[in-house]
What we know:
There is one protein chain. By secondary structure, the chain is mostly helical. It contains 13 helices and 2 strands. It has helices at 2-8, 17-47, 72-86, 92-118, 129-150, 188-207, 213-232, 251-268, 277-294, 298-304, 306-329, 341-347, 352-376, and strands spanning 159-162, 166-169. A hairpin with a 3-residue loop joins strand 1 (159-162) and strand 2. It starts with a helix and ends with a helix.
Amino acid sequence: MLADYFISHGFYAFASGWAQFAAAFGCAFLIMLIFGRGFVRWMHAWQKKGQPISENVPESHRAKAGTPTMGGILILIAVILSSVLFMPMTNSAGWIALLSLVMFGALGFVDDYKKVTSQSKKADNGLSPACRLGVEALFVVVLVYLINKTMPPYVPDLSIIIGSSVFWPLNSWFLGDVFGMPITLGFLYYVFGYFVICGSANATNITDGLDGMLSKLYLPVLIVLVVALYGATRIGFMDSVVFLPETSSLYAPLGAMAGAVLGFLWYNAKPASIFMGDVGSLALGGFMGTVAMLLKSEIIMGIAAGMMVLILLSSFLQTMCYKITRKITGTGKRIFLRAPLHHHFEELGWPETKIVDRFFIMSILFSGIALILLKFA
């Protein structure tokens, strides 16, 4: 909106993606800082008792009772407003990214609202897993269809890309050679999209378990996506990234997301004044997975988000191990003292801040590996 206005009036600096990124970043960050304190007070007055503390977390979390949740609402407002102000209005990629943010944010809001109003400490006091995964599947069908429609003519329909010249087309029923030959899996591109987008949403959701942790693990992944975006909009910058000019509208949304997450960390750092809630964590993950698919950088994103993947995997393995061993022996066995992974280290006696900082270091390392692969793979 403003970017198009400034360009039409001779301020051509706003034609630069980096100018859009910086403007959206600053706008979102200021929204979080200026309105954050009042938003926290409003949430506290509305929720009164705040987020109920689950019975499945370590005892130390009982001290957090009464802390308001749903801080992700302000993140969504900051990202959407800043993006619309500074992104090109005619490119569809930016709108698809924002659509994913709204979709998953709305689902998270319903989940949070149910938890806050019920004040139940049961692990299943929100939406049922089946309901949530089913709704997420519908979102993915819409998003993957739109993502596929944005691709330029030289990118095969329903395809993922390894490098700038190696394609994995998924548009028939014949299984062929990976390198240059079609892998004919048809609708399985939608299944792939489900794992990327829903996997991202649930990874960020389950990572949001300690004060400030999701924000710190999320920001390095955003940096990787920004570098991938630069490669996708600059011919020859990276041999491993395909040229995708339509994605130039993602600079503002990525800048806005970085500014909003950094601004939220101001209030979510230990001891947290407010929690992000599912409205924020699901939205951040859905956005991350959608942007990765728009940039054809799904594998790179998965590597960058390696710490969040490990956290999600720890919870999955714990659940499966318990169910299988209980069925076989009658007594369930557990791999970890408590899942997800960060709760395991809490049970070992690690301070919360040490866990967050060390996971943050690991996130930086995973993102560094992703950047190396992005440039040289």
